[in-house]
Design a protein that fits this description.
Elements lengths: L1 E6 L4 E7 L7 H25 L24 H5 L6
């Protein structure tokens, strides 16, 4: 089982689970969530000991995301014919 959990002290914000078997029991899921909570809090303790609050400004080298809207009839120009690039 591959199980990833992200979140804050208030709760889970995202999770992902990949399993090879048909399913898991509620007990296994509960234990996995409990372990993830302990680990998340441990990580948050280290983060908070390093920096207690977010910096007011991002560093110039911080990653940035830009979004653009592409008209549906122009998408083939961006991704190629039939999505083949």
């Amino acid at each position: 089982m591959d199980f990833k959990v992200a979140g804050t002290r208030e709760g889970i914000t995202a999770l992902q689970m990949d399993i090879k078997i048909a399913g898991i029991t509620a007990e296994i899921l509960a234990e996995a969530l409990a372990q993830a909570k302990r680990a998340r809090f441990e990580i948050l303790d280290v983060i908070e000991a390093t920096i207690s609050e977010p910096r007011p400004d991002l560093a110039p080298s911080a990653p940035k995301i830009d979004s653009i809207k592409i008209d549906i009839d122009k998408i083939k120009i961006v991704i190629g014919k039939g999505g083949e690039t």
